[in-house]
Write a structure and sequence with these properties.
By secondary structure, the protein is of the alpha/beta class. It has 2 domains: about 120 residues, 3-Layer(aba) Sandwich (Rossmann fold), CATH 3.40.50; about 160 residues, Dihydrodipicolinate Reductase, domain 2. Helices cover about 30% and strands about 20% of the residues. Strands 8-9-7-10-13-12-11 form a 7-stranded mixed β-sheet. Strands 2-1-3-4-6-5 form a 6-stranded parallel β-sheet, sandwiched between helices. Strand 12 and strand 13 form a beta hairpin. The two termini are about 35 Å apart. The structure holds NADPH dihydro-nicotinamide-adenine-dinucleotide phosphate and N-acetyl-L-glutamyl 5-phosphate. N-acetyl-L-glutamyl 5-phosphate (X2W) binds next to strand 9. This is N-acetyl-gamma-glutamyl-phosphate reductase. Pfam families: Semialdhyde_dh, Semialdhyde_dhC_1.
């Protein structure tokens, strides 16, 4: 069995890791940390875990995590992980960081996040479908939620060198912003409402630019505008891909089916994705249509931000890092209505 520790377990992605681990046959959760809630039962905060997990939050130091765990997941805010990771690495412990701290090269990090990285080091970017090298690694930077849906939506067209520019328009559920209440997530502001934010400057642009440039390093014209919608989970991304030549929907289908043929968690649809069809699951659903009049392909992707966008993807990475089937503990249909 694999002994897993979750650092920052009182938040949404920490809670989701524990929910998903209940169905993982190879994992024991041995530690769930919280600074504020140490000593309190995990199921007091994550009430859906009542009766399934008899564990108390601990305020565990990195040394203790190294002793008791085979793998540690960091589910803490960006900026916090870079002070913890250096004390975890170096021994046998495998580390998966769900924060943004190790996803970008240091220069790109400083530009996107506005401060100097305190622990510049390389990590493998854990977008499994585009990074088969995650297997056997000991340190993974788990991708961001928007970048997961956006990168998977555009990757086949980028790989084919077909993109002249792309505009990602994403709609996220409220859990994307974490557990702390904010003005945006305050019920009267969120319910029956749609809010755009960071119209041209969201920090995730750097992340999917880095990913798409691995496939086509001439691609620079990448735009992104996020929105919050009154859903609890999910990110629907509409990618307007302006192509170098006119394409048919069948041309596009060939590219997507080729790239995602043996990728169990990417479903290339005949129809269009929706948040309901992926809710609670690790799938990224993708649908598309080529514009008959213009050099444009519209691609839509749907993920659950807490699963494929965070904790499910982290477990997919863990499975490969330990030589297990990537589907282990994750092969569930969505909780669609
Ligand atoms: N929510 C999402 O959809 C996604 C989130 N992510 C990333 O995953 C990480 C966790 O996200 P999420 O679960 O939503 O965040 P939350 O805000 O819900 O939870 C974060 C937890 O981290 C702990 N924490 C906060 N500050 C520190 C610190 N300085 N040192 C140690 N622990 C700290 C807190 O626990 P306590 O105060 O009890 O110690 C808190 O409960 C973030 O980096 C986020 O950006 C990535 C993809 C998707
Ligand atoms: C709705 C909402 O507020 N979303 C968050 C996404 C945060 C997140 O998950 O960030 P990482 O993936 O980089 O860790 C935001 O836009 O900042």
């Amino acid at each position: 069995m694999i002994n897993a520790g979750i650092i920052g377990a009182s938040g949404y992605t920490g809670g989701e890791l524990m929910r998903l681990f209940l169905n993982h046959p190879e994992v024991n959760i041995v530690a769930a940390t919280s600074r504020k809630l140490a000593g309190k039962p995990v199921s007091g905060t994550h009430r859906h875990l009542k009766g399934f997990l008899d564990l108390k939050f601990q305020d565990l130091g990195p040394g203790e995590a190294r002793e008791s765990c085979d793998v540690a997941f960091l589910a803490v805010p960006h900026g916090a992980a870079m002070d913890i990771v250096p004390e975890l690495l170096g021994g046998d412990l495998k580390v998966i960081d769900l924060s943004a701290d190790y996803r970008l090269k240091p220069d790109a990090f400083k530009e996107a996040y506005g401060f100097e990285h305190r622990d510049p080091r390389d990590a493998v970017y854990g977008l499994v479908e585009l990074h088969p090298e995650v297997a056997e690694q000991s340190f993974i930077a788990n991708p961001g939620c928007y970048p997961t849906g956006a990168s998977l939506a555009a990757a086949p067209l980028a790989k084919a060198g077909m993109i002249s520019s792309v505009i990602f328009d994403s709609k996220s559920g409220v859990t994307g912003a974490g557990i702390a209440p904010t003005e945006t997530s305050h019920y009267p502001n969120m319910a029956e409402n749609v809010q755009a934010y960071k119209l041209t400057t969201h920090r995730h642009v750097a992340e999917f630019t880095q990913e798409l440039n691995r496939l086509d390093n001439s691609l620079t014209n990448i735009s992104f505008t996020p929105h919050v919608v009154p859903a609890i989970r999910g990110i629907l991304t509409t990618a307007h891909v302006f192509t170098k030549d006119k394409m048919s929907t069948d041309d596009v289908r060939t590219l997507y089916e080729d790239m995602y043929r043996n990728k169990p968690f990417v479903r290339v649809l005949d129809g269009l994705p929706s948040l309901g069809s992926v809710r609670g699951s690790n799938f990224c659903d993708i649908g598309f249509e080529a514009d008959k009049r213009n050099n444009r392909v519209v691609v839509v992707s749907a993920i659950d931000n807490l699963v494929k966008g965070a904790s499910g993807q982290a477990i997919q990475n863990m499975n490969l890092m330990f030589g297990l089937d990537e589907k282990l503990g994750l092969w569930n249909a969505a909780a669609a209505p």
